[in-house]
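Please check this one:

***
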Amino acid sequence: MPVVTMALVFLLAVVVSTFVVRLLPVRVPLPLLQIAIGAVLSYCFGFEVTFEPYLFLLLFIPPLLFLDGWRIPKGAFLHDWRAILTLAIGLVVFTVVGMGYLLHWLLPTVPLAVAFALAAILSPTDPVAVSAMTANAPVPSRLIHILEGESLLNDATGLVCFTFAVAAVMTGQFSPASASWHFLLVAGGGLLTGVAVTWAIGRLNRFLVRRAGEEPAPQILVSLLIPFAAYLAAEHVHVSGILAAAVAGIAMHYSELSDRPLAATRMQRAAVWDTVQAALNGIIFVLLGDQLPRMLRQLPQVAAQVGAHTPWHLLGFMVVITLMLGLLRFAWVWIAARSGVALARLRGQARVMPSLRLLLVASAAGVRGAITLAGILTLPLLLPDGSAFPARDAVILIAMGVIVLSLLIASISLPWLARGLSAGDPAMESSGGKHDEAHARVAAAEAAIRRIEQALADAPATDANQTLRAEAGLRVLDIYQRRLDYGDASGEKLADIRRLAAAERSLRLKALAAERDELYRLCRAHAIEDDLMRKLVREVDLIESSLTSRAMQ
């Protein structure tokens, strides 16, 4: 079947899954449903996809990591950076070492380097799958932000470790000291490349916009191309393209704070990226389901290759590996929490140990998903000498099994654990000094009023316009002071109504710009979180869009 036809069928499967998951009488996590649809396509309709691993990595990983970096709340990330780095780096290394030796012990025929590669690709968690299962659960927002920050960095960390392990398999050589130095070089180069590419593209884009004006469509295309540019540039200089794509997303956020696009660009771009994210994540899970029937048919052969007595033994190994991943995660989370409390008390700070239920939720949130599948499918087919990559089918099958099992376990345990979890857990309380939504709205409205008053004071004092501008200014001020409509203006002359509407629209646009400037200022000063800033800026954008669309009618 042609590749284009298959791509269209998979996109249709993603669309169907989003409707079916809402129509089912029982709540089923969307990733599980998409896996089932993929399995049906393969088993009933003969869909079997074969693809080039590195092309698959290029198409799926950079945009997903870029979007994670772009949208993660930066204020929460900076506040909880210790907890995030402990999970994103410490837990990944702990998992790679612990699971690597465990996998080699369970399956002695699997080379140690291959076992480390499998452990590395199993270390990243999948935030999309977790959010789908905890949408209606009272999980504290701070814990969600920590998990989001972890998923952003552990994707990159796990994939970098996976790359080193695969390189060790391909070359047959591995030196811890050399690998550590090479890791720092590759990771640091990826960070710098991501920032440099985003900065260079941003400077060029701003120059062109100043000369030719801004149109939403080209700006959206620029944002879509940045992650691929960062990834390819980093790979060209032999540093981490994965980290480059993630850091490009973070740099994109800060670039947007200082050089803000039009409201129409922001709204249309957000819709496009939401679509891209849903499509890519959905296709990855449909592809996982599509691979399952073929892998199950190969189960007896794969079990024999790795020394398992029966296919059921190999399935049992998958269950053991999934449970061990959960136990390792819980042990690390508990140790990190206890260490954090002890260090805080040594510094004379009051720190509360998180509840056991909260630690269990953080542990159960270690769901494997899109990144794990995308990474494991990039394993080379052959070694440099032309022989087959050792145990490739086995580790791919194990990774797929762990993804499905972790999704099943989380879909059952997470809602149950979260329902009994107090959202007001003292350990999850946000730091003080932050403006809440009401304060942010008041600050934005006050900035708008100041901008209107300044515009009225700076207006030319001509007899023809002064009265209309003063009346329009009073009406706009009344909107911001009371947030109520002023009613219609029946009885006035049509020409006066049009001039009055134009003057009012001009003042309202200035006021909206002031609101937006104030919200960005609060975000830069870490007075409000990024997600709240995006929510309020979107409200301003919607109002501005309606005003500009009416002006063009």
The radius of gyration is 27 Å.
